[in-house]
Design goal:
Elements: H1 2-9, E1 17-21, H2 22-35, E2 41-44, H3 51-58, E3 63-68, H4 71-80, E4 88-90, H5 97-104, H6 107-112, E5 113-117, H7 120-130, E6 137-142, E7 147-149, E8 154-156, H8 166-177, E9 182-188, H9 192-195, H10 205-234, E10 241-244, H11 250-254, E11 261-264, H12 266-269, E12 286-297, E13 300-304, E14 321-324, E15 329-330, E16 340-344, E17 356-360, E18 373-378, E19 381-387
Helix pairs in contact: 5-7, 8-10
């Protein structure tokens, strides 16, 4: 069992700590590349948040380029990544004038970083910060991927971008081209209602059927609309890339002729939210360990800390999952606590004070916001200890 092997490898460590199983990471990276069907995958750095692992993944066949989550992160990566690893797309718009001015004054960084925009307001902000002189700034349009029904009264998907219709994409492309300092290089869209929503969760068969129905309808609508939007933009200027997808939708998105590259990251760590997809079966690669500090009653233990909850809509699926010893569960009345977390189950009675309980985080890169370093395990030994973004003092959020 993986956690038993990790237990042996980390016997000398003091919890709390986090580990990444490199064998599982390699397996997941290869699986993502196969699912991409030959199209390159741009690594979503927010799902990793560890520079050493970003470098390792970018050396894997099938991966090229990074989707960063802030401009300061993109500047750091662009200045330090080998050029043959690809460029850096900022996955979200930047409204901070200081890093925009920094980018505008750095010719090398400007050639490797792509800024995201979904409105003329973004373009005006970028131009105001950059000024009229200097290297061109590369722009990607963020096309909204949500499914809108009944004239927009029903919205299924991310509340991400106002840029929805192909005509709107064409008009924003014209606005980019009208500004001498800007250069249009890409279009992207993230279909969170497909890529980030498990379609095989335990529970109601009707709910599963409903999720699959919506995903099929959304995929058909988006493929048509994305192709129309890309054609509309290409009628004005050539593009370097059209980015789409996510860990949960690689097969669907790679089949679209309009899409030239994919984005993925969560599938590398395979957190608990990615346990129930029909299309793929990743291997859990990231874990954290906590210490038993109480035995309040038969069938119960308490570990120190544990409130490492994930972002998104509050609910049980955002809580960490105890995985070793098997047979432990969170208490619904208390969940995962900031200082202590009680756990119930048959395995509790075999645990003693000072023993470890292993957990999986619900989301991928957010684990790295809780620890300064990751212990990399290969086989049954630790082969490296590497800093997370937090451990490097990189406060990008």
């Amino acid at each position: 069992m993986t956690t038993e092997r990790l237990q042996r490898a980390t016997a000398g460590l003091r919890p709390p700590f986090a580990v990444v199983d490199l064998a599982a990471l390699r397996t997941n990276a290869a699986q993502l590349a196969r699912r991409a069907g030959g199209k390159p995958i741009r690594l979503a750095s927010k799902s990793v948040r560890c520079r050493e692992l970003i470098d390792r993944v970018l050396r894997t066949p099938g991966f090229r380029g990074v989707m960063a989550f802030t401009l300061p992160e993109a500047l750091w990566l662009a200045r330090t990544l080998d050029e043959d690893r690809g460029d850096v797309l900022v996955g979200y718009p930047c409204a901070d004038a200081e890093p925009l001015r920094e980018l505008a004054a750095d010719e090398r960084a400007a050639a490797r970083v792509v800024l995201m925009a979904d409105s003329v307001e973004h373009l005006e902000l970028i131009c105001a910060a950059a000024g009229p002189d200097g290297p061109p700034l590369r722009i990607c349009l963020d096309l909204d991927a949500s499914l809108r029904l009944l004239g927009g009264k029903v919205h299924l998907g991310m509340r991400r971008s106002p840029l929805h219709a192909p005509d709107a994409a064409r008009e924003l492309a014209r606005a980019v081209l009208a500004r001498p300092r800007l250069r249009l290089v890409g279009v992207m869209s993230y279909e969170g209602q497909i890529a980030g929503l498990a379609d095989d969760r335990p529970g109601s068969p009707l709910h599963r059927a409903g999720v699959r129905l919506v995903q099929r309808a959304s995929a058909r609508e988006l493929a048509r609309r994305r192709a129309e939007a890309v054609r509309a933009v290409l009628g004005l200027a050539p593009l370097e890339f059209v980015n789409g997808g996510g860990t949960g939708s690689l097969e669907r998105t790679s089949a679209e002729d309009a899409v030239t590259e994919l984005a993925a990251g969560s599938g590398l760590f395979a957190p608990a939210l990615f346990d129930h997809y029909r299309a793929f079966d990743p291997v859990p690669a990231a874990y954290f360990a906590l210490t038993v500090v109480r035995r309040p009653a038969p069938g119960l233990v308490t570990v120190l800390g544990g409130g490492w909850t994930a972002s998104g809509p509050a609910g049980p699926d955002r809580l960490p999952t105890p995985v070793h010893p098997r047979g432990l569960r969170l208490l619904p009345q208390e969940g995962a606590g900031e200082v202590q977390t009680p756990l119930a189950g048959p395995a509790a009675d075999a645990l003693r004070l000072g023993d470890r309980v292993w957990f999986r985080h619900a989301k991928a890169g957010e684990l790295c916001e809780r620890v300064d370093r990751l212990h990399l395990v290969d086989g049954d030994r630790i082969v490296d200890e590497v800093p997370t973004y937090r451990g490097e003092g990189r406060a990008f959020l």
